[in-house]
Prior knowledge:
Elements: H1 3-18, H2 23-30, H3 34-42, H4 50-60
Amino acid sequence: MDESKQGFGEYLRQLVENAVMTQSEFYTKLGIRKPYFYDILSGHTNPPPYPLQLKAMEILDASD
């Protein structure tokens, strides 16, 4: 498994936890489906496209 993919998934998981929001709440607000979300977390797929990453950061109120 590609370490950069796993790194992104772990980073996203931590951001969701820090936002005090369930994973279900997050992926629903982001507009993606559960299987895709868990593929991202596990590193089975590439990180989402940049515009979706920006939307995720807005939802999570993340600055980085």
